[in-house]
Please model this.
Amino acid sequence: MKNETKNPAIDRIDGRMKVTGGAKYFADFDLPDLAYCVIVGSEIARGTLTNIDTKKALSAPGVLGVFTHLNMPPIPGWDAPAGGQADGPPPKPATEETYRILSGPKILFDGQPIALVVANTYERATYAASLVNAKYSKQTARTSLEKHIDKQVTPKGGDYSRGKAYAYQSAPVKLEADYKIPIEVHNPMELHGITAHWTGDKQLMIYAKTQGVNATQQAMAQAFKIDPKNIRVHTEFMGGGFGMGLRTWPQETAVVAIAKKIGRPVKLVINRSQMFTMVGHRPYTVQTIQMGADNHGRLVAINHAATAETASYEDFTEATVNMTRFMYECPNVSTRYRLVRLDRSVPIWMRGPGEATGAFALESAMDEMAHKLSMDPIEFRLRNYTETDPEHNLPYSSKHLKEAYERGADAIGWKDRKNEPGSLKEDNWLVGYGMSTGVFNAFRWEASARAILHADGSLVIQSAVTDIGPGTGTALTMIAHNVLGVPFDRIKVEYGDTSHPKAPSQGGSAIVSAVGSAVFDACTKIKNELFELAVKANGPLAGAQTADLVLTEGAISIEKGLDKKVAVGKLMESSQLSKIEKDADLKGSPDLQKYSMYSFSVHFVKVKVNSLTGAVRVTKAVSVADSGRIISPKTAASQMIGGVTGGIGMALTEEAVIDHRFGRFINNNLADYHVAVHADVPAIETIFIDKPDPVINPMGAKGMGEIALIGFAGAVANAVFNATGQRIRELPITPDKVMQREV
Amino acid sequence: MNPFQFTRVSTPKAAIAAVTKESGTYFLAGGTNLIDLVKREVIIPERLVDINKLPLATIEKTATGIRIGAMAKNSAVADHELVKKHFPLLSMALNAGASAQLRNMATVGGNMMQRTRCSYFYDTSMPCNKRGPVQSGPDKGQPNGPTGCRAIGGSNRMHAIFGASGKCIAVHPSDMCIALAALDATVNISGPKGDRSVPFSEFHRLPGDMPQKDNTLAPGELIMSVDVPTNAFSEHSYYLKVRDRASYAFALVSVGVGISMKGKTIQDIRLAMGGVAHKPWRLKEAEQFLKGKEATEANFKQAAKLTMTGAKGYGENDFKLTLAPNSIVEALQVATKTA
Ligand SMILES: Cc1cc2nc3c(=O)[nH]c(=O)nc-3n(C[C@H](O)[C@H](O)[C@H](O)COP(=O)(O)OP(=O)(O)OC[C@H]3O[C@@H](n4cnc5c(N)ncnc54)[C@H](O)[C@@H]3O)c2cc1C
Model:
């Protein structure tokens, strides 16, 4: 493949199916005899279930079973060592508590399942669930991080430092600031759940909302002690994942157990309020940054500390403080990360994960420091720009961040910005500009794929990978097309099923790199075989060297003598091949260890702020991605737009609120939990640097799902500061935080 | 969902009779609020009486103004030529509410009757004086189980700063009603005891000791229509809604204003606030103050200050003590500018 050329913008291959209802999501699969499961959740956050009365529920019409800790069928492999957090049952905790669904009367979080009700229709199961009557012995819920911040624990991974510990204290210009991120909930449109169907005693078919079918397969194999080969998991489409589908949740495993017990397929679709307690969330996190600079605007020291909530029964960690270690040239850096275990359900990665939380703090602090130094925020970043990774002392595999700053600044009209806050006004609204940087690891995980070229010229690509929406199928189509020259409409990508070659979970912005490399490899193998056929003794291009051959528009020719051609179909026919099928099973490469690989983004926003009402509107957004060669420009732009939309929600509107007196969410619905709506989202300009990374993979492509969101909230906060002179360090930036007393 | 009876009626008489006959019976209009409440078991009805067939959806000119049928859809009212031209405040307020889909279903009567959005009212595991004793959770099954108000001392960011009581600090969430209160509308009601009319600002009530009663409608009474008198405010009307996102969120504070101006002088003015009380909060004192005065920022600020007598915050909603007067100034500025 020639990475020098940009890829054309093709339509999303499954777009038509999605908008016409042709795409089948997990809950769309209907099965004969399907039973429906509804969860009854605890209404207290900590204590003990003293009595649970299921009699009324059991005698309600259509009820097939009511399962509580008293009669829950056993899950034989619950306590087997987990193959990693994402793959299996909750790991054996180092924590004081253990959570195993319906295993005892202890209540560890609000909404914890206390009964699973199964009936022959969803409505009947819902009604019966309302008849379950529980009595509790309540204990005081510990849900407030601030209140329990003295009970911090240090998770694995430890602290980081380089340089002198006290450098900050003696820096000529100092800044210390605290930043706060509320609980955010993924809240995709599609509700979470699973359908479990035992097709034999040890044969299981699963339709689930999972970001990794192989991970779910592995988790269930472990939980039920059966061979993974006998478990098939299907998730072709997903109505938004954002991280919530990156592990197999306890209630999914419970449904599989119950399906076996009652001898019917069982479907669970949790409701919206359960989306707040059963499938994770972005953890509430408080951060402190100490930043020191010299009078020339060079960073002297950064100390970054973060404390995040987790559950009493599991330590969830993420890379909140890591960006601070390598983003800027700075001799003295320390990071510290702590957890506080609370009576809350466990968090999970949410798009951009911890990096988005950390970037809000770091990139706000960079803006604050630039202001202290009376420097332009871009200039300040450029003065501390680094071409090598100061954490690992390795070169970046590629970094075009300078160009990204330039192009973004141009597009937003940065030259119109005034460094002095409160300088610009349009129609009585204050106007401000802000920017920030985002960064995320670029990976290449192990992955496999299959390519099947048919003699009629059509190509099938197979991989177990799920497409959670970014356009994975479209990207894989492009990669296959670039290797084999098969027209787009003759390529079919089959994915989201464990019957296809194994792939990692869709997450961490790694799929184009990982699965794409496997597809590239499988297609290359086919191409090589075609070349061998062409040059063999009695072949059409006998005598030529395979190295001199090219494949274009369905025909093979000798690069320097293009007149002599053989059509691929003809070649296969004459070799009596109806198809050529190749698998690729890709491991990482040791070469990758010699580089630091990251994707970068820069976000620019223009806001207007009404100082009387505190209303903030993002009026323009420009996001620039430096993520290597863009494989599918159209879906990549969509992904960027989606990330920015999430970023606007994070910056301005999203917050899940707990009443700590009861440890209970009070806005657990889509009317009160505010995701950004159209009126919050202006036209978004996306810019791609689109220069191939020479190291990461043969396509030169780095990931971009996370960087679309990472940093965005900081850009908004910085713009609000530029507009008003008010520094908001606690998200979301709602009117009450911004309005200024005028009357 | 609990089983209930469903009746469809085609005359107001039949509707009133059906609802009067048995308790636990509710009129069903657009269903956008009632059905949610039923699903959440905040209301467990015995019977729903579908009034969508009643001939009450007309919007017509009258000798003194305009008459809007109780079953007119929110979107139909907002888009009606007469309303847009002569009562733009009403149109703006309606369009500031909910979403296009909801406004296509929601009716004028239903909008007036919608319940509060207080989270504790919705969470049946918590006691609520407006809803009655808990229906589930740890205290379930105690017939005279605890009542009380969890919003007091709790998450009350959305709650009242005016006219609340020790029993309830909830707000009435409607946008439309702010405009109707400002515009001196009248509500026409039909009931088992005959027909009556009440001024709009006397339709809703303050919580006092009976927060379960949102308004003065008697059991079985049906809202037939709303009259809005002709006014001279069409050139200087504005509905300002301050909320946590740009659309599709309930008001933190809203201000409805209609003004008639002569040059720079305010000749007549109507002013009401939403998101601050158990009922649309009419600002008569400020109106009085501004009448005959010049439209200046200083006067607006003075008027805004006047409105705040007796305002009280409950913690999380303390910011409204600033946001409310600020919003009045902003609304007045915008309204006096549009010419
Ligand atoms: C997500 C969401 C967001 C919303 N946002 C807003 C907002 O921003 N601003 C806003 O103002 N509103 C908002 N609403 C509320 C919406 O305006 C109301 O739900 C709607 O107006 C109710 O009208 P309806 O016809 O659907 O009433 P229904 O749900 O059918 O009935 C509501 C109540 O009114 C009674 N009723 C109906 N008609 C009559 C009558 N003629 N006489 C006597 N009683 C009657 C019913 O018995 C019932 O008790 C929102 C609603 C939702 C679900």
About this structure: Chain B has a mean pLDDT of 95. DSSP finds twelve helices and twelve strands in chain B. Residues 237-337 of chain B form a domain with the Enolase-like; domain 1 fold (CATH 3.30.390.50).
